[in-house]
Every structure is written in C-alpha cells, then in structure tokens.
Design a protein that fits this description.
- This protein is of the alpha+beta class and 565 residues long.
- The protein has 17 helices and 8 strands.
- It has a 4-stranded mixed β-sheet with strand order 4-1-7-8, with no helix packed on it.
- Helix 16 crosses helix 17.
- The two termini are 41 Å apart.
Length: 565
C-alpha cells in the first residue's frame, strides 16, 4: 500500500543521480533515490502519500539536468526516460505510465456509500415506526383486519407513547453524542484508518482527520466537568467530597494508562524497559484533575440574579475571573518556555521537527523546548516512534503527550468548560446558547488564522498536534464549538436525531477506550491480513473492529451497564 515503482532509463553516456524531496517535508534536504549508470536502468520504490519533487543530476559535473514535482498513485509503475534529442540540446526527462495505478479512493467511496445507506436506514426506521401511529395511509395498509382496527386501543396507546416521547430528557444528548462521535473516530484512527494518510496523524505541522479527535474529547471533558460539578454542588456535595472523587478518578486513570495500555506481552509484566510515562490516559487524567480543581474551588452553585451591569453580556466570563487568570498564567508559561527557554545546540524558540528538516541544520532539535524537557524528564521512557520519524528521518524520541503540551490540553478543556457555562447561564434560551457558541467559534477561528497565517508551515505559531501549539488549540476550539452547537441544535432543540449510534459509546467511553486499546488487535476485532497490496482489506478490518465496539456499547446500554470511575 501507498507505494509506486519508478524505473529510470538512462540513455546518456554519463552516470546520473536521482534525488527526491517530499513537498510535505518543510525545507527538507534532498535524499538520494537511485544511481543510474550510462546506457542502463534502475528502479526504486517511492511513497505515494505526498507529492514528491524529483531532480536528476549528472554524477561528474554535479549539474541538475531536470526537476519536476508530481503526485504518484498507489500501485502504479512509472517510467522516466533520460535522453538527449541531439548534441546541441539539453537532456530531457520524459515520464510515462507503464502500469496503471490502483483506484486509491474506491474502497473509501464504497465504504462511505454503505455507511450512508445504513445511516439512512437507522434514521428512516424510527421515523416510519413513529409515523405508523399517526399516518392514516400506513394505518389503513398495515393495520386492517379483525385484530387491527384503525381506532383500536393499541393505536391509541401508540399515539400516547409517541406524544409522551416528545418530552426532552434532562441529560444532554448532544454531549454524549459528541463524546461518542469523537471516541468512535478515535477508535477507527487508532486501528489504522484503513491505511489512508488522511486518517493518520500529520507528520508534523498541519491537520488530518486523526488530529481532530483527541481535542474534541478533551473539550467534552471540560463541558462535562462544569455540568456535573454544578449539579453536585447544588445537591449539597461538599468540596472535600469533590476533591476525594476527582483524586480517586485521576489516580485510576493514571494507573490504567501506566500499567495496562502500555503493556507489551513480550516484555513481561510491568517492565521498565518499555514503560511509557506520558500517554493519552495520563494526559486526560491530569487535564481532568486541573479542570475539576478549577470548578471545585471557583465554580458557582447558583447563577446570580441579573443586574443592570455593563458587563452582563460577558458575565459567564467575568464571574469566573479567577479561573481565567489561572488559564492566562498557564498559557503565558507555555509561551515563555516555548519561545524563550534555551535548548542546547538548538535555536531558541525552535518549533520544527529536526532531522532532515530546515535544511538539516538542527537534526537533534525535534520539538524544541517541549522535546528537550521530556527527554530530560523521561529519558527513553517516552514515545520512540513520533509521526515525524519516517518523513523527517528523526533520531530523537518525541512524545505528543509530553509535559509542555499538557498545558495547552488544559486550555483546550477550559474552552469546553466555557461551553458548559454557557449552557448553565442561558438555560432554556437556546437562541442565546447557539449565538454565543458561534461567536466563540468565530473569535477562536480568526485567532488561529492570524497565528498560523492560514499556512501549514509559515505562520507565527503553526498548527501542530505534536506540540499542541496555541494555534492548534484555538483551531480545535473553533471546530468544537461549531460541532457541539450543531449537535445541540439537531438533538436537543429540534429532536431530529437521537444521537444513534454514537450516543452508546459516548455513555460508556472509558470501557470502549480501554477495551479497544487492550483487545483491539486480537480476533474478532482484527485478523492477519492476506491482501496488503491495496486498502480494501485493511479498511474493512478497521471499520469492522470499530463497528464491533459500537455494537458492544449498544448492548451494554441495553443492559444498563455503564463503567464509571
């Protein structure tokens, strides 16, 4: 998968060298691809994930004969002819297709159509079921007979059940749906995303689908903390009881992250050699702990009576000024460490991937200050295969769940807390809630655009999931407000959608996440692949494994089983 074959035919009388550079790799040094002797040919396998720039140089004179940039397609066999028309012209490089490539996105298109049909059936089936109680035509067709009168008691009971079903539940469907949607996407991405690079994390700067899901999950943690803690405080739960609860939950999540999700059977139980100290659950646990402390110490049990103050439109911000002060101090700390902390043999404020990037000048500076702090704190007990390793050919370990990025994870969760505060302050005023969500999305989106200059690599602070950069958090905050607002409108206001099937994993998120991490690579969730030339089998396997966890969450929902910590 994701490979093509290039064959170079050299008709010159001198040996040539072929170099390549990925257009996704920022200012990367050209790498040698092949050496082609005179009157001979040579072949090389290349990656088809990103556009490649190739250049052909003469071995003796170090002169560039030709240069071109092209996106190659999986499974294709390309021929490059290097020749001269006559003695008075420059050499020509001519590309032709010897074997047609695969239709790369056909499996994805087929899967998308099948999922769309299944989703339509899930939407239409409940609608038809409800309409059978109210539509005269359906009742006439389906309910005629000696035991089915149009005006019988069963129909009346069905109408009563339908009408009573309009009562809105106290639990926010949009919150569970958003959590379940992000978790389902996370499971699919962790399983491999069908092998498509758009479902894998970006090599360094930039965004893919895989880079969206964890910030959404963190955002929902913040929203849930505000709603849950406000409810418990109104019921009279003391601060000491809340502190015990959040401490216990944090410790359990930490232990799960340390001991179970890091487990490798070949190394034996709790082997320090493979133990990764940072991790997803560890970061989620610490983020939850800080957000819960903020809400416990400076939250509000009741909404104050409205008075004629100039700051009324921003009271959901101003009344929580101690929380905002702490968040601003944390973000200032992140900015100061990132851009002012000196790193040995690296430029101050460096945000690059190192390796062959930036002209190969800083090969051991992966992640700048963030990477330096983690390597000093954790040594080798951190993620050894960062997303930049393959493309940028880095040699330093780098952990995307490191210490410095956790600060911005807290900021991301705090934006989710703001979403929860808006729901509390403007309860039963759905128009105000949606308008404020839109305003926050616009403010965050514009801020992210300014910091990144709407470019992948050329901004003041590029959008980077590995670093959890400020522009990345602002961008994800924008998406989160829009997505939560959209789901709130569709599920909680209009009632057009009940959140199925995402609401089921959303209500059992800890079970699904831990379960898929421990058992995801065992049968029946996955199997040994036999067709690895294209994406068909891998995409089927990843969709199958993800669907199984959604089904398991549904069955647990029917049994009223919810794993809580």
């Amino acid at each position: 998968m994701d490979q093509a074959l290039l064959t170079f035919h050299n008709h010159l009388t001198e040996e040539v060298q072929v170099f390549y550079q990925s257009d996704y790799c920022y200012k990367c040094v050209h790498q040698r691809l092949a050496s082609v002797k005179p009157k001979n040919n040579a072949s090389a396998i290349i990656s088809t994930k990103f556009t490649l720039s190739l250049q052909v140089e003469l071995q003796t004179r170090n002169a560039t004969l030709c240069r071109w940039s092209q996106t190659y397609v999986e499974g294709g066999h390309y021929l490059i002819w290097i020749y001269m028309l006559d003695a008075f012209t420059n050499p020509i490089c001519n590309l032709s297709v010897h074997k047609r490539p695969n239709n790369l996105y056909l499996p994805l298109l087929v899967a998308a159509l099948l999922l769309a049909v299944i989703a339509l059936l899930f939407v239409m089936a409940p609608y038809i079921y409800r309409r059978r109680c109210t539509s005269k035509l359906i009742k006439t067709i389906c309910c005629q007979g000696p035991q089915h009168s149009v005006d019988n008691e069963a129909a009346h009971a069905c109408e009563t059940a339908h009408n009573s079903g309009k009562a809105k539940p106290s639990r926010l469907l949009s919150l569970d749906t958003f959590r379940g949607f992000s978790l389902t996407a996370m499971v699919f991405v962790n399983y491999g995303g069908g092998g498509y690079w758009i479902f894998q994390h970006a090599p360094w700067n930039g965004l893919t689908v895989a880079d969206l899901v964890m910030p959404w999950f963190v955002f929902i943690i913040g929203t849930s903390v505000v709603l849950a803690f406000s409810s418990m405080q109104r019921r009279g739960v003391t601060r000491l009881q809340l502190l015990r609860k959040i401490t216990w939950r944090t410790v359990v999540l930490m232990i799960l992250g340390f001991c179970f999700l890091n487990y490798s059977p070949k190394d034996g139980p709790l082997s320090w050699s493979w133990l990764r100290i940072p991790g997803v659950l560890q970061r989620l646990a610490f983020t939850y702990f800080v957000l819960s402390l903020l809400q416990t110490l400076w939250g509000r049990k009741e909404i104050p009576l409205r008075a004629d103050h100039w700051w009324n439109p921003a009271q959901d911000v101003i009344l929580y000024w101690p929380q905002w002060l702490i968040i601003i101090l944390l973000e200032t700390l992140w900015l100061c460490i990132t851009f002012l902390m000196p790193v040995p043999n690296c430029p101050t404020g460096y945000l690059g991937a190192g390796g062959i990037g930036d002209g190969g000048l800083y090969p051991n500076c992966t992640g700048g200050a963030a990477g330096h702090i983690d390597r000093w704190m954790f040594g080798e007990n951190m993620f050894r295969y960062p997303t930049c390793k393959e493309l940028y050919q880095t040699v330093q370990p780098f952990d995307p769940e490191g210490l410095l990025g956790t600060i911005n994870s807290i900021v991301m969760g705090f934006l989710g807390m703001q979403a929860g505060k808006i729901i509390i302050f403007y309860k039963r005023k759905n128009g105000h809630i949606l308008c404020r969500y839109l305003v926050w999305a616009v403010i965050l989106g514009i801020s992210a655009a300014i910091l990144s200059k709407c470019t992948r690599d050329g901004g003041f602070i590029p959008v980077n999931k590995n670093l959890w950069s400020l522009s990345y958090v602002l961008c994800m905050g924008c998406f989160s407000f829009l997505l939560l607002g959209g789901m709130y409108f569709v599920t909680d206001i209009k009632g057009w959608w009940g959140g199925q099937p995402f609401i089921y994993p959303g209500m059992n998120s800890i079970f699904v996440y831990v379960g898929h991490s421990l058992l995801g690579f065992y049968f029946p969730f996955s199997w040994e692949m036999h067709f690895q030339e294209n994406h068909w089998e891998l995409l089927l396997q990843n969709l199958w494994g993800t669907s199984l966890w959604v089904l398991i969450a549904y069955l647990l929902y029917r049994k009223n089983f919810f794993l809580k910590i």
